[in-house]
Automatic annotation (TrEMBL):
<feature type="transmembrane region" description="Helical">
    <location>
        <begin position="83"/>
        <end position="101"/>
    </location>
</feature>
<feature type="transmembrane region" description="Helical">
    <location>
        <begin position="177"/>
        <end position="207"/>
    </location>
</feature>
<feature type="domain" description="Reticulon">
    <location>
        <begin position="72"/>
        <end position="258"/>
    </location>
</feature>
<keyword id="KW-0812">Transmembrane</keyword>
<feature type="transmembrane region" description="Helical">
    <location>
        <begin position="108"/>
        <end position="126"/>
    </location>
</feature>
<dbReference type="GO" id="GO:0005789">
    <property type="term" value="C:endoplasmic reticulum membrane"/>
</dbReference>
<keyword id="KW-0472">Membrane</keyword>
<dbReference type="InterPro" id="IPR045064">
    <property type="entry name" value="Reticulon-like"/>
</dbReference>
<keyword id="KW-1133">Transmembrane helix</keyword>
<keyword id="KW-0256">Endoplasmic reticulum</keyword>
<dbReference type="InterPro" id="IPR003388">
    <property type="entry name" value="Reticulon"/>
</dbReference>
<dbReference type="GO" id="GO:0009617">
    <property type="term" value="P:response to bacterium"/>
</dbReference>
<protein>
    <recommendedName>
        <fullName>Reticulon-like protein</fullName>
    </recommendedName>
</protein>
<dbReference type="Pfam" id="PF02453">
    <property type="entry name" value="Reticulon"/>
</dbReference>
Length: 258
């Protein structure tokens, strides 16, 4: 009888341990699934919040990637301060020479060639008297791949501009048409105030200063741009109701010819 009771207790303990294991497994799987659900919810909420953030011009990539992510992007965004400073210094020197000192391009090129040839010529002849080796004149050759790359990039940009102008002139998007007209009008005003070299220099300086400032303060600029775009859409809606909607349009009916 005692043996029967001991066996009964063993069966009950074994059953209880089995139930405990099943319960722990169930709860463990439930907690892991709930954790995965929580993680998925957090990720979806983060992605939704990221999608709601307004970016200027619909930017989805970092500013460095927008500029190509290579050496030109490093120069525009001041990743290499020496190179960027040298480029701006060279552009400033050219602008000072041609605009302030009223140098002419052909005159400047000729004077630089005269000075360079004279220095090398005198150095080559003086080396025989001072027992030093003559200067090594490098062989300058313009690489073909660089010329083809620049020509291909320029061709692509020109074709893109032509396609944009064709799309604007087609009359499909009134908002873009007004924006392009306003932009060209502003450029014409700037062109009447500055000459071509000064205008090019201003654009060059802005290209090397505005992107780095935008990258540094992109959150504030994007928030301000979002408010400005909302105000522009509001004013455009008012202009559309009061002016554009009142422009008479002729009936577009198919003409039937006998």
């Amino acid at each position: 009888m005692a043996d029967h009771a001991g066996e009964h207790d063993k069966h009950e303990s074994a059953a209880e341990s089995l139930i405990d294991k099943i319960t722990e497994k169930f709860h463990g799987s439930g907690s892991s699934s709930s954790d995965s659900d929580d993680d998925a919810g957090i990720k979806s909420a983060a992605s939704a919040a990221k999608a709601k953030i307004y970016r200027l011009f619909g930017r989805e990539k970092p500013v460095h990637k927008v500029f190509g992510g290579g050496k030109p992007a490093d120069i525009f965004l001041w990743r290499d301060k020496k190179v960027t400073g040298g480029v701006l210094g060279l552009a400033t020197a050219i602008w000072v020479l041609f605009e302030l000192l009223e140098y002419h391009l052909l005159t400047l090129v000729c004077h630089i060639l005269i000075l360079g040839l004279a220095v090398i010529f005198l150095w080559s002849n003086a080396s025989t008297f001072i027992n030093k080796s003559p200067p090594k004149i490098p062989e300058l050759v313009l690489p073909q791949d660089i010329v083809q790359g620049v020509a291909s990039a320029l061709r692509t940009e020109i074709n893109t501009a032509f396609a944009l102008l064709r799309e604007v002139a087609s009359g499909r998007d009134l908002k873009r048409f007004l924006a392009v007209i306003a932009g060209l009008w502003i450029v014409s005003i700037l062109g009447s105030c500055f000459n071509s070299l000064t205008l090019f220099y201003i654009c060059f300086v802005l290209l090397h200063t505005v992107p780095v400032l935008y990258e540094k303060y992109d959150d504030k600029i994007d928030a301000f741009a979002e408010k400005a775009e909302a105000e522009f859409k509001k004013q455009y809606a008012v202009f559309n109701v009061k002016v554009l909607s009142k422009i008479p349009k002729g009936p577009l009916k198919d003409k039937k010819f006998a």
